[in-house]
Amino acid sequence: MACALGVVVAITLGAGGAHACYSGLVNIPTAEVLEPGQLDIAPQFDGSFAAGSTDTRILNTELGITSRFEAGVDFDLSPDAEASPFLNAKYLLLPGGEGATALALGICSVGRGLNNTPYLVATQEFRSVRGHLGVARIDDHHRWFVGADHALTDQLTLMADCTNGAENYATVGGCYQFTDGFGITAGAILPNARGEDDRFTVYFVFSGSYLPQAEQ
Hints:
Elements: E1 7-11, E2 20-24, E3 38-48, E4 53-66, E5 69-76, E6 86-94, E7 102-110, E8 117-126, E9 129-138, E10 141-151, E11 156-163, E12 169-179, E13 182-191, E14 199-209
């Protein structure tokens, strides 16, 4: 999937929560899904700028099931990880395009011992910028989130997003697509609460097909 259309990345809607991989920006989902037959695998590494090292390692996967549905399973490989694996799914209610708004309904962080997170998100194109707005149920609280992405070139896309609530954060980052099958997404994680450490996240996204070409 090209960066301009959003990349499959591992993200959390709540700080400290389990990650769930779906098509989106650095930290929020977008109203789009993978192409049918597409498989994305995204090893993720998170850490603290102050410590200068990683403390979170996730193996994320995502499958394009139909033209409107994607789902995936992710594995927490961090030291002392308690929750693994966890699931996510997203359905495209309205496909958008040609000036129309796209709308998607999804759920993430579905697993034993986790509080799953349902969400609704809309995506709208404004010339060279796409805007994203949604709401999620995070740990029994309704939280809104907003974001935007802009493709500087066919390979490089800039992204920014924010989720409200003291326990959440904003991110600023981007994606560079080296080939159709490989890209890197990286971003700074900026907590909403004062006194919390700024963090970073990096995803190595490998894309391919899980179906023979003739069946897609």
